[in-house]
């Protein structure tokens, strides 16, 4: 990567099917390796979902440098809210505002979906991410274990 773009040089837009290779590459950087074919299948579902959005940060020089996936989480026990399902910025472009810009765009999307709050889950090992969310107005309010069962 060449020059790292600043916030003013970024454009936030909805993901396109033509972004699939870059989205898969960034998912791998996030620690979730995926084939382009599988990412294509996943993106197709997200792009059709009216209660979810995948937004990308794009610079004129570097192309797509990050993405965020956000969805509405209608719950019985608490008010309607949105959740960040994934957020990644290229490792060569981190700490220059792209993540915060994506987060703000996702929050605006969530407000448009009548959500009063936003949540995010972050692995206990991702201390740098924890600091990022705290700096961006999120509060640590719960520690939990996550259980999963294959179906």
Describe the fold and architecture:
Helix content is 32%, strand content 24%. Strands 1-2-3-4-5 form a 5-stranded mixed sheet, sandwiched between helices. It contains 4 helices and 5 strands. The protein is globular. The relative contact order is 0.16. It is an alpha+beta fold. The longest helix is centred in the C-terminal third of the chain and has 15 residues, at 98-112.
- Terminal Cα separation, in Å? 41 Å
Principal-axes geometry comes out as: globular
> Main sheet, how many strands, which sense, barrel?
5 strands, mixed
Q: List the strand order in the largest sheet.
A: 1-2-3-4-5
> Which value, in Å, is the CA radius of gyration?
15 Å
Helix content: 25-40%
Class computed from helices, strands and strand pairing: alpha+beta
Order of helices and strands: EHHEEEHEH
| Average predicted confidence as pLDDT | 92
List the total number of helices: 4
Strand residue percentage: 15-25%
Uncertain runs: none
Please report the total strand number as a whole number.
5
